[in-house]
Amino acid sequence: MKDLITSRNNKAVKELSSLKEKKYRDERGTYIVEGFKMVREAYAAGKKVVRLMGTEEGLEELGKSVADIDLSEAIAVTEEILKYVSDCKTPQGVVAELEKEDFGITKPEGVSALLDGISDPGNMGTIERTCVAVGVKDAYLLNCCDPYSPKAVRSSMSGIYSLRLHFITADDLGEVFDGVKILACDMNGKNVFGYNVEGNFCVAVGNEANGLSEEVKKAASEVVKLPMTDKVESLNAGVAFSVVLYELTKGKCGK
Fold first, then answer.
1. How many Å apart are CA 210 and CA 172, to the nearest integer?
2. In the structure, how many helices (H) and strands (E) does the chain have?
3. Which of 45, 51, 64, 126 fits 97 for a cystine, CB–CB 3.0-4.6 Å?
């Protein structure tokens, strides 16, 4: 383990702290994960850990729970420095810089998800976590917030490790989903409860405020909705997507 770092001017400290901003995540091709659980699971998932940083106590604790981890290059810092690097108000003892994975733009394998203009990082993470829970492997992002932002990563609860993220444009829709039924979530659609769909399909969810884009609406094969009482105007995008996906898959993608 390297000598204890106490200065914010240290190069590694400045670089890891900068990953809270999209500009620098894009430049470095990396993102940051925080806390024992997510760092442990990154190692367990075989993710490329570029750098590991933590308090001396935190790194020691991580070493006890991750088999064969090499802490010789880990960066030990004070609690004050870790708080400076972290996006959390009360950070746990470790953070890791992970390499982004490039899955390109390929056709989906099995049931998939299309995120159309999702702008809230919390919703992004919730949707990713739901996808992994039901066995969805491919998620397509069209004009969305950055799934590698610290809040989105935290909200995914390690779901980001098990999902292939594809960044697409509206021009890619026709080729990517050729022969794939897109079921779009919208209040003007058919009742999703009792709706039967055969084979592979893609569930599309739109922007929290404006809904689906015109391009996705045109590409959709069918529109489905969650029926609600007149006491509620709409549901959170992450919640709505989760209910629709579970109803449509009904265990097809699970264990």
1. 21
2. 10, 10
3. 51
| Parallel, antiparallel or unpaired: strands 222-225 and 201-205 | unpaired
Q: Is the distance from CB of 109 to CB of 137 less than 8 angstroms?
A: yes
Q: Bridge partners of 54?
A: 76, 94
Supply the pTM of this predicted model.
0.93
pLDDT at 169: 98
Please tell me whether residue 129 adopts helix, strand or coil conformation: helix
Q: What are phi and psi of 249, to 5 degrees?
A: -85, -40
Q: What span, in angstroms and rounded, lies between the C-alpha atoms of 226 and 247?
A: 10
Q: State pLDDT tens for residues 135-173.
A: 999 999 999 999 999 999 999 999 999 999 999 999 999
Largest Cα–Cα distance of the chain, in whole Å? Answer: 62
Residue with the two structure tokens 């960066």: 75
